Amino acid sequence: MANGFGSLYVGSSGLRSAQNALNVVANNLSNVDTKSYVRQRTVFEDQSYNSFGTASVSAQSTGLGVGIGDVIHARDQFLDRAYRTESGRQAFYAANYDATSEVETLLQESTGETFGESINDLYVAFSEFAKDPSNTTNMNLISQKASLFVSRSAGVYDGLKDYQANINTKVSDDVDRINELGDTIHTLNNEIQRIEAGGVETAMTLRDQRDAAVDELSSLANITYGETSDGILKVKLEGVDFVVESRSYSMGVSADPTTGFYTPYWNQLSNPSKKDYYSVFNLDNIDPTKNTDVGEIKGLLLSRGNAYSTYMDMTGLTSEQYDKTLSNSVMSNSEAELDTLVHTLTTSINDLLSPIKNYSGAATTGVDKDGNTVAIDSTTRIFDEANASVGADGVIPTQELFSRTGCDRYTKITLADGSTVYKYNEEDPKDTSTCYTLNSLKVNQQIVEDVTKIPHMKQNGDVDYALGNNIYQLWETSDYTLNPSDKSPCSIADFYNKMVGEMATTGSVYKTTSESLTSTKASIESNRQAVIGVSSDEELTNMIKYQNAYNASSRYMNVVSQMIDYLLSSLQ
């Protein structure tokens, strides 16, 4: 076959190979604008060789032409893995940056004015009050600005809670999408395995679809993957089997009974009937060096936090505890710091207007208005009548400016000896309605209805200028810290500025990191597209090359045919 008719076989193999290569080029050109399409590439291979001649020196071989060894995707696995890793990291930081942007918007734009202006307006109102505490105009100004401060604080806080709820909805949506992608990859695995089982055909389109699903999945969560010899792509998500040969596992979400916040869990590792959940994501140790800062859903969970936080969530935390928990959540930390600001300001003002002290007498008991027995000892805090100013009505105990929805400031207690004390109703973390928190704070209705009830004069009837000055100076007292990790006490006047500055710094870090990763992702994608993308110019060049190869094979066969005809005619 090396000569004669064998040469026709060589020519025909060239024709077939060139024609198949042209078909691949045509397919590439027709999908130049198809999303997720990966350029296909023809791999040629030599056909078997025939040897002739017996001497080792003079032995010769002749080829039997060329064939199509395979049609493969033009992919770079290294670029694919790099792109997917950076895509996941970019999504993580983008989710956190979006949260900081929302916080900054809520703090800086509240009903058309910056939230900080409501704090300053209250400061100005007390500045005027300090000049003349008996002036009813100044009292009215305090009532108005206090109401405005509470309403704007509540507005910002509600905005933070609303955004948390939106994040929570997004978490649920992302879990659903992850489950859909897992099912998609599993289905495509089965189809690819079926088509490629004969070793003849490569399921190019299905592989494109599977790779696109993996690309999207990598942006949602941290994944690792590998393909088996029979074409099955196995995927682990957060280190747990997600897609295996036989199935795709799924996530569920458990809802917190109080907040409704979702926590994703693995269905195959959990027992919901016994409230036993195996959480998918570990948020305790986010470390870029350990590749744990990957995936949009983890970024959403971290920025959302686990609760609608108040100042109480910071109370009692050490710096280390705070740094490992609350500080990592943009939304929960912002809520806690805002509530701390409000709690600090309102309780400080109340303690000046209606002072409290520890009971100094012998331990005893008393009864309240309902006949309940109440223990009174040195740990009990009561109204400090001796150091209290009064309103125009002269009523004891004096009114506080900010009150709680769940209880009054004091409860009247009649002691065993017949004397009376006013027991301070302590804040109870188990009942937020008893706490000076944005969930239960309001301006005292008694003062709203009659501003002259604001304490402003001594019990002898003189105007209490010292009281007004003490409240005014409250803004300048540097006794307040933003959070347990804050080692630089500041004044109330600087508290808000420090809070905004901290958020701006955090947001800047997330923004810079997100933008850097976006640039890195784009660069990798550009390199990846240079490999997988269809270039019209390149494909047209290939078309000319294969057309020339086809024409050359055709002319070769014509020459061989003419030669054979000549030889046959010569033998006649």
Computed over alpha carbons, the radius of gyration is: 39 Å
Query: How many DSSP helices?
Result: 12
Q: What would you call the shape? A: elongated
How far apart the termini lie comes to: 22 Å
Largest sheet: 4 strands, antiparallel
Helix content: 40-55%
Give the overall average pLDDT.
Answer: 87
How are the strands of the biggest sheet laid out side by side? 12-11-15-16
Describe it for me?
The chain is α+β, with helices and mostly antiparallel strands and 572 residues long. It has three domains: 5-72 and 539-571, no CATH class; 79-94 and 163-308, no CATH class; 104-156 and 319-509, no CATH class. It is built from twelve helices and 17 strands. The chain has helices spanning 5-30, 77-108, 115-131, 136-196, 204-220, 296-304, 319-324, 330-353, 445-449, 465-474, 492-532, 536-571, and strands spanning 40-46, 49-52, 60-63, 66-73, 223-227, 233-237, 240-243, 251-255, 262-266, 356-358, 364-367, 373-376, 381-383, 402-404, 410-415, 420-424, 441-443. The strands form seven sheets. It has a four-stranded antiparallel beta sheet, with no helix packed on it. β6 (233-237) and β7 (240-243) form a beta hairpin. The mean pLDDT is 87.
